[in-house]
Amino acid sequence: MQLPKNVQKIITTLEAAGHEAFIVGGCVRDIIRGVTPKDWDIATSAVPSEAKALFPRSVDTGIKHGTITVLFGNEHYEVTTYRIDGEYLDNRRPQAVIFTTKIEEDLSRRDFTVNAIAYNPNRGFVDPFDGQGDIKCDIIKCVGDPKSRFGEDALRMLRAIRFAAVLGFKINESALSAIGALKENMRDISAERIREELCKLLNGAYPKAAKLLQTTGLMYYVLRNREYGGDLDKVITQLSSTENIRLALFFSWAQDCEEILRDLRFDNKTIKTVSQYVKFLPQEIPLCRYEIKKILRIMPPQNFEELLQLKEINSPSPIHKKLRAEAHDILQKNECYTLRDLAINGDDLAAAGHPKGKAMGEKLEALLNAVMRDPALNTKEQLLCL
Ligand code: ATP
Ligand code: MG
To answer: For the residues 112-134, what does the mean pLDDT come to?
Structure first.
């Protein structure tokens, strides 16, 4: 197996200094599945200060937890000291992180057997829990007893379903029933961690796994104490395309979509975009340039395009193609649909004797409306006469 040059360099540098180093976790799992890893994580017996001293450029990403990020040009690699987790007291975080010099101990704190494999070109695989066997059988299985592993960190329950959605694997029976038993512990998990896993889940190639959120009862806690109000069976068949489209489909039933997204600590841009999509999803957009401009006023053109894609997925119709063509033409012709593009502004109106204040705002709004209906009106002379 050929590792990327930089990864190989990190491993040999650590080894030459008398330490051990392996690639671990997702990248090993992906290589075994024949998928190109998106990032490479390295585990080492070197403590962070030793690792740092060996690489000219590094960042202390999570030094308390043993992680530094090694930089080569634009590429970056996480190098983490072998560790075992201290006692878990709150269903989410270990009390303390303890460094160790045994790779097997580091692997045993990991969540699933498929994520608990290490590889090094000289030493081959270290796979104490037969993760390779489970990858062959497409199985997500906890490292150790599911109840105690989910009891340590409740997020792992959602991660199990996320990996099922990303990898297309089945979760084994004992893990599934442990999720059913411990789902309430998800209350202790931060919204940010839940959001991250939920997004990965919804963007997985096997969204059918989302059904497990319902069958295990985890959904209620993922939605921060809400029942899912949509037709998940239908939604699952629709989940495709971009992340925002998937989110809008998943939350299409939610009158309070904005509030849910806020509770899950999505960023403001995503909250605004997705809740606009959810609002427009059931509304028919008339094939009328004025109506299209009204929407273009409140969302960027690429979002209008995405909204049409979403509407097409939700209920296919030739009108979406026509709406797209009209929008394209409006943009191509640079037709005005914002106050900024109006041929006059407040100063022009003031110079022509209009009083400032609320009335002026209303006047500009009225002129913009007229121009949105008739683009030919967008000249200073004509607008001053209206
Ligand atoms: P992806 O390709 O989606 O990033 P990944 O397996 O790399 O998948 P990460 O969330 O990046 O997933 O985690 C990296 C590795 O760290 C995992 O493979 C697993 O070994 C370990 N890990 C991550 N989160 C946990 C957790 N909550 N409990 C135990 N081990 C974890
Ligand atoms: Mg990863």
So the answer is: 97
Give the C-alpha separation, 229 to 12, whole Å. 53
| 259 C-beta neighbours (distance < 10 Å), count | 14
- How does pLDDT run across 79-95, given as a tens digit for each residue? 999 999 888 778 887 87
Query: What's the length of the chain?
Result: 386
- Percent of the chain scoring above 90 in pLDDT: 94
pTM of model > 0.70: yes
Q: 106 CB less than 6 Å from ligand 1?
A: no
Token pair for 306? 């995405």
Determine the atom of ligand 1 nearest the C-alpha atom of 107: 20
Reading the block at residue 203, the tokens are 């963007």
Question: Residues 6 or more apart from 121 whose CB is under 8 A from it?
Answer: 1, 3, 8, 11
Q: Is the pLDDT of residue 132 over 80?
A: yes
26 lines ligand 1 (CB under 6 A): yes
- CA 81 from chain centre, in angstroms, equals 27
Phi, psi of 67, rounded to the nearest 5 degrees: -105, 125
E-strand ranges in the chain read 21-24, 41-44, 58-62, 67-72, 75-81, 83-85, 97-99, 118-120, 124-126, 139-140, 170-171
Inter-helix orientation angle 155-167/173-182, to 10°: 140
Exposure on the CB side of residue 6, measured as CA atoms within 13 A: 17
Task: Please give the single-letter amino acid code of residue 25.
Answer: G
Q: Is 152 in the pocket of ligand 1 (CB under 6 A)?
A: no
Ligand closest to Cα of 23 equals 1
The candidate with the shortest Cα–Cα distance to 229, out of 200, 207, 259, 204, is 259
Ion ligand 2 residue ranges (Cβ < 5 Å): 26
7-29, pLDDT tens digit by residue?
999 999 999 999 999 999 999 99
